[in-house]
Amino acid sequence: MDELSSTEVERPEVVEDSRSAPVVKVAVAALRVADSPRLNGVDSDHVRALTEVESGLPAIFVHRQTMRVIDGMHRLTAARLMGRDRIDVQFFDGDEADAFRLAVKANVTHGLPLTLAERQAAAARIIHSHPELSDRAIASTAGLAAKTVAAIRLRSAVQPSPVRIGRDGRARPLNAAEGRRLASQVIAARPGLSLREIARAAGISVGTARDVRERIRAGQDPVPPRQRNACDAGSGRAVRAEPRATGPVALDPVDTRALLEGLRRDPSLRYTESGRHLLRWLSTRTVAPAEWRQAVDAVSPHCAILIERIARECARVWIELADELDQRSADRA
Fold it and tell me: Does 237 have pLDDT greater than 60?
């Protein structure tokens, strides 16, 4: 399968860079209700927990142009209940669509988590506002599997973008055949270009550009037969075949360390004894891919079967925990 790439554009996560914005004091009365991904609004129990936090809460995040809260509506509500006139704020200067994406990302990685229904609804909205973003890029923002986002996209009536922008911020053609055809046109018009320049102009990888040039030199079609066969004979445009389910859906890898770090910043956990206990419990029971890969090299052959059983049982228990939490989220939705 061709590896597609292109010139760098604005990164899908570039809106997060604004979290380094300076903290300023803003009048509580000047702030507007969030354009929130939460379907049921503010959670009163979470607000009450925040009002009991004695030390200062983190700054909330606000869209400067509209003064709408992006992240921190529970903190703002708690400040109002406590009779505070001003609150710490960091401003975001992008557009409203990017502000919503930032709100979704923030509420997925820390604070009171979004329910599955809320994450799916947020993904559908992002598909409408940013159809050029790839399934993986939207999945990373909304805390979903890429296949879930793909299914939501298929159900939507959004006109597909000719390119997709991935999590790395690079634009890729929606299908490899179009990228190859464009590369052949670039080569015909400017045969002296380097492979890297061809790849950049056509939105494909250098390896694909090399293959296209070699095919042209050999008098062959720049698009391999298997990709030509995937084209709609009537329109001449490539269409994607729907993958058949052959087993359990594989989720995208998750950076558990980043998620844990986000939980450690949550005031309801950080400033309560039960919350700190939960954080310690999680910290000693999560394993990053690099860690188990190092550990597996130290496993003696006669211990492998026993450790495999332990790993599978731990995985089963974690899945039960995940299912229970997902069910509780669904019950609250």
Answer: no
